[in-house]
Amino acid sequence: MTTLEIKNLQVSVETEDSAKEILKGVDLTINSGETHAIMGPNGSGKSTLAYAVAGHPKYTVTGGQVLLDGEDVLAMGVDERAQAGLFLAMQYPVEVPGVTVSNFLRTAKTSIDGEAPKLRHWVKDVKVAMESLRMDPAFAERNVNEGFSGGEKKRHEILQMELIEPKIAILDETDSGLDVDALKVVSEGVNRIKDKTGLGVMLITHYTRILRYIQPDYVHVFINGRVAESGGRDLADRLEEEGYDRFLPAGV
Amino acid sequence: MSLLVDDKTHQDPQAQIGGDHRIPDQSRAARTRSFDVGAFGLPTGREEEWRFTPVDRLGAVFSDAATDDRDGDAAADHAVTAGDHVTVGTLAPGQAPRGTVLVPEDRGAAVASANTEQALHVAIDAEAELAEPVRVDVTGRGAGRRSNAHVVLEAGAHSKALVILDHTGAADHTGNLEVLVGDGAELTVVSLQRWDDEALHLAQHEALVGRDATYKHIAVSIGGGIVRMNSNVRYAGPGGDATLLGVYFADSGQHLEHRSFVDHNAPRCTSLVTYKGALQGDTARTVWVGDVLIRAEAEGIDTYELNRNLVLTDGARADSVPNLEIETGDIAGAGHASSTGRFDDEQLFYLMSRGITEDEARRLVVRGFFADIIAKIGVPEVVETLMTAIDEELSLTMGRTPAA
Question: pTM for the full model?
């Protein structure tokens, strides 16, 4: 059982003249096996929350705490956070020329586990995971994210998650830019990993569409850098009908 | 009339990043070529071909001076390792084939030629396919000691060989390499610059590629205070194929300069020039100037040249200048590309967010940057040497702040 606690998290980003505050005190607790959907309009700070928890250097934490089973996540380096069991599936995965997917996956797995995976099991694990995400085996010899379609990038993120086996995963708009077929494959992947490992999920999304395939236990409406309202699945249904208007100041 | 940088060719806008890109006011073919040292004045740094080079530090290798050999103690050893079907001898000035292909194009090459009484001559028998590489190990015996060298390498018709020139130690070295690739021959020449920090090295490597012959020249520059290498090619007949590759890694205080000139003087030949380099540390400096001339008679040729530089830390500078002169439009293809970029922090973040340590992530990115050219090199021994050297270079910067 793992718990990620985000307490009164405040984060700013450096702009040309000054620091701009984006997260204004976020409170959120995610336990193993739970799926929390974070929904909100563009610019509300959802992605900032994801990147700040993962430790992107662009964001400065100005207050609050992030704890993973009581350990201070904010004191850890980016790699240490991943080694501790956090995973961020990115909205825009980065190209790494000249580094093959297979080399990347093996290096990541070795770093997370602290030892190289047993070759025979590893080859099989990769093959099975790729098959279930309906990825061509030739994919493993391509360079990381180079020339990948939007759908391929997202499948590759889920593939990493399946092999790395994190405790808590943050999925940052994993559904954006996916057609329905790809969305189903990716969602199946997330559900399969949840069933297998008891993964806790923070599912950041702009749309309710993905929630038809991944059932959230909790839904949080994110407005202007903080959680404005929390509820169950029904809150998502209500958002689908009403949109975010009632959370926004009049005239916006 | 020659068109300098034809507008039909692609030019990456980033080619301009290197700074004051000027179009030379004369054709590359019009440059002075002479065995007479006096034909070349002492470079001042204002000349087109010397403007990137720290000429003020090169007085020792510009002077028309003899090799500083002492009794039983050569300034630089030249140890040759060769098996069957290879003849090793010497050639005096004017003794063919010495001087038939390489005519000095700058001051350094002229003094090397004038001060080498007996050039090393390595001849590979026609139709011989060598199982083992021919090695010429050049070992500098002391910083500041003047060393002149001229090597003539002759690959007989339809022969197949790999020749490795390996420079280590330190010296003030001017070294010419004159290469005759026989008709139908397949020759790979590797020049490793693994000098100590104090070494100075000026080089002109000049090849004549025979009819239907394949020539590959690979420059690997890792060590040395200043290395400036010209790798030039022209063709003795149609159907020749030349590949000029280069990999370099410059640290603080190092100036690594590579120039290439492909003179397309025959029809239906091809050339591919690819140089890639990484830089780290204050004052690390690299220069690449790639000249290609497509003469009127060079119909049906295909050429492409590319240079990429990866700047790992602040304070380093890479210059990159592709020049393409086209005198006939009747060609299969001609293009060039050049770019210089900083180490990408987003790549670092992405890799580290998968648990990979910063050191390992940097290694992956840099190895990845060189991956395609390393695949082109195709000589396992050289690839291994190079990868080890890259890892060693990277271990020096670990913990240093990446370029912002």
Answer: 0.88
